[in-house]
Amino acid sequence: MTAGILLLGTSGCNAQVMLFDPGGPVSRLESHLMIWTFVLTAVIVIPVIGLLWYIVRRFRDVPGNDAPYKPDWSESTSLEVVWWAIPIVIVGILSVVTAKDTFALTRPPEKLSTKPVTIQVTSLNWKWLFQYPGQKVATVNYCYIPTNQAVQFVLTSDAPMNSFWVPRLGGQEYTMPGMAMRLWLQADKPDVYFGSGANFTGHGFAHMRFHVVAVPRAQFDNWVKQVKSSSPPLTELGLTELRKPGLTGQLTYSSYPPNSFTKMIMKDGGMYMAHDRGILDTTTF
Amino acid sequence: MLRGDVQPTPFFVTGDPMILASDVLIALTLVGIVAALTYFKKWKWLWREWLTTVDHKKIGIMYLIAALLMMFRGGVDAELMRTQLALPNGRLLQPEHYDQIFTTHGTVMILFMAMPFIFAMMNIAVPLQIGARDVAFPYLNAISFWMFFFGAMLLNLSFVIGGSPDAGWVSYPPLSETPFSPGPGENFYLLALQTSGIGSIATGINFLVTIFKMRAPGMTLMRMPLFVWSIIGTSVLIIFAFPALTVALALILFDRLMGAHFFTILQGGVPMMYINLFWIWGHPEVYIVILPAFGIFSEVVSTFSKKRTFGYSSMVASIMAISVISYLVWAHHFFTMGAGPGVNAFFAIASMCVGIPTGVKVFNWLFTMYQGRIRLTTAMMWAIGFIPNFAIGGATGIMLAAAPADYQYHNSYFLIAHFHQVLIGGVVYGMLAGMYYWWPKMFGFILDDRLGKAAFWLFNIGFYVCFLPQYQLGFMGMTRRIYTYPAGMGWTTLNLISTIGAYIMGIGFVFIVLDVLYSAWRGERDVTGDPWDARTLEWSLPSPAPHYNFAKIPVITARDAWWVAKQENHGKLNEPDEPIAPIHMPKNSGVPFLFALAFFVGGFGLVWEWYWLAALGLAGVLLCLVTRSWDYNTDYYVPVEEIEHTEMALRRSPT
Amino acid sequence: MTIAHETVLRQSHEEPHSLEYSTSGGRLKILGFWMFLATDLVLFGCLFATYLVVRTHAATGPTEGQLFDVPTFTAETLILLTSSFTCGLGTREMRRGSRGGAVSLLIITVLLGLSFVGLEVNEFVKYTSSGANVQTSAFLSAFFVLVGTHGCHVSMGILWMTSILLQLMVKGISQVTAPKVFVVGLYWHFLDVVWVYIYTVVYLMGVIK
Predict the structure, then answer these.
(1) CATH fold of C27-207, please?
(2) For site-directed labelling of B196, which of A201, B473, C62, C77 has its Cα 20 to 30 A away?
(3) Is the peptide bond before B544 cis (omega within 30 degrees of 0)?
(4) Which residue of B4, B392, B476 is in closest CB contact with A16?
(5) What part of B 527-566 touches C (C-beta under 8 Å)?
(6) What mean pLDDT is predicted for residues A222-227?
(7) Distance from CA of A272 to the nearest CA of C (A)
(8) What share of chain B in percent tops pLDDT 70?
(9) Does A272 touch chain C (CB under 8 A)?
């Protein structure tokens, strides 16, 4: 039955099966691992269900059943060795693949030729704030990224912890107060990618969706220029407003208070996290 | 409604018309119960036979009733959620209400349904299976039950008084801290779990001592029924896991009531620490509830295949391996919280390793049936239904354990489908199998097989219809705990199907209740004490068993002692060749009830920060402890004549 | 509280080496209590872990080094260790059948326990009156809760031991009272062990630069 579901997921060109419609190298690697684990576990699950079906049919307690009945047969070292060995081998294979991918995902998906675009993401109640330390612009509930280029998201929260998830670009990472966590994503093609908060943060949580708009680099730079010329700045007062619980639509700002991201992390306990400082140093320009 | 304004909490919850209606219904039910007890003059009976009992069999029955009631409550929560999500932009529930419902659904189902259900099964079966007259500490056993009971009451009370908790059953800070969850709801959650948790720890200790020290002579560890082995695993896990929950809950409580800063955002608090503590309990907790189910499947599969359990030693080794590994996997609940790749890889591999002993168990169950004679009773149906369910649940578990894949599955409906598949397909199926299996031993009549099978098929089909679509919803990016979703995501059809499945499961549950009522009325009476032609000691006793269980303690010479006695000794166990001696038994006591009641009162005081009431509760607790310590008249001897009389009445030769 | 399991009694080849182990009820209780201590150990383990995670998170409040006072915690340690010694002697007197000896040693233990709690309360009052309270910082929350949980355990032990020594006075040494004396002794020694860790992890690590 799971097989059917997965086929539905993989074969359909239905763009809404996001996990099997990868839009970049990160999600592609993850979807490959998903298929690997699926196939390897199916190797056990399908025979087990088949065997169960056979056994229950064959050994029913009905008159005239000529199947052998051995009420005291309860040990067989050779059989048991077989079914200790099968899961051990499968888990062994999966362990190697998993460990390899786990380490791979902490690095940028491709070798960086230029300085990557960095986006500082803050989850608030109940909205997403995106700040571009390189471009010095900010947005709420949507962001632009250049295609074919690794993008470094640095995540935190100034509210209960949420989780930043753009399924077609890659797996999620939590946004946690006082911590700065890094997530590499990359988009192959220009598209609007669906994103949402994945960890419950209260009454407005269900509405914490956002868009990641991927465009070619030139268009991205144009977008930045346009924002800088036409949008209002995000002031300290505006930031305080954003922090208040509530919903907003998409917003765009031509600037934001300097170092507001770092300050927020430090205020929320970041000063105790030596590890964060490393990430912040590479991302605050 | 989506503003963060804090409104003062009214004492009685009245706002929502649905809650108001249930308030009225609850009040009417209570009045009805009180009236019935008074009219039939049953107050004294209730106190003497139930509220003060220390008999493990009666305590087991009370756990069972409580578990079924809580399954109903948690189930209604589930049906409401599914109704809300059946179509996009659902209007049935406001987000506040939906948040409360998924919080109480999870809390009730894990802590107040699954836990009492396993306690019911262990209380009913373990002493009988090891040839003991009760547990090691019957008085403590009563305390455990009443602590659970009043803990459950405290949580359920929040529905009508003060408002239910709404920060999720995991109650992660900072969301569960005062700034984001003001009001008493979260306090109810913390104190209810704390109260019942104390009871759980006591049960773990009690059963471990019972199993280690009170087995009949000759019953070596490797001659014990596998259910007893599974309870060893569960008890060890309880002992080492529950204190972590106690600490996690207590520290949030300090934050909330005294303004401490363990898990707050400011002043150096570390929310992550709660998440570690919670899952150091939380992951073993999963195995605390699943191991007894494994034990029950072993009993049921062997009995209804008329065959010895295949690979007994492997089964024991698997139980113990699962118990140990379950302590090394907790971080797989937060692969996505910024741990380094080394940590994630370690926990991913450890988590996958749980699949090894579990897989071995599945093969051993299959080969217990192989070359046996399979009788498809309702209990056996639940056991057979469990196997494909758990195979799929185990496979999706391994898929989730692959950390990078988990980055995608985490918090999605794929995860929801997975853990319901193992918790329903594993624990609930196991407990229902156990309930149908041991029901005659508890009540002296057999549950009707046709109604039972109808319930099984409805529930089983409903289960797949409900949860298979949820895997796909996970692939489609639907996250958990959203009270609504927009049209156009492609989620609508699958959600609708899932909701229909949930309704079918609900009908299945109704059939179980019907089965119980019908069978009590005209079900087949169990006059032999061994309706299943079973294998272990409890079936050598009449149904229900006399309060002292065994008039003489049998001497055990083999595994499946009762089966061997039937095969080789005309159905007579080896009993010492001595006349019946007076039996030493514990006296009933009302103190456990009052002790837990004092906890309830104190807990209620803390919920509302009425410290005078909390102090009163504490005083009550201390008073109960002192009273017990000074009571030297706690047990008595059942005279020989009474034993002989009872045995005669049960038509067993007393000699 | 427990059923004397006749068969188990007969089966047991174990020579009852002392009074508290002479009944099956006593043996069960003592084993059960060891298991309770295991749960308590996990509880303290979690509190220690929490303390270690946040011990440097002093926020705007004082740090460990600024807070702890060597003579106070040294006195607390010496008193509690001595009380464990007198408690052990009390159990020994109980085994020898000397009610007077057992009672007087337990009274000394309780008095030492009381002075320990008194010193600790005094220490807490001093800190809080200087503005360092449970609300100041994560470090102080963890300090007060870890050390305070131990203090509550000791206070509970004082009440319990008082109740037991009164029972000894009223009921004498018997198969029923002996396991009680032994078990409360186990509890007391356990608290001593926990204190040794508090002394090391909280106080010594705190004052050593």
Answers:
(1) Four Helix Bundle (Hemerythrin (Met), subunit A) (1.20.120)
(2) A201
(3) yes
(4) B476
(5) 553
(6) 96
(7) 7
(8) 97
(9) yes
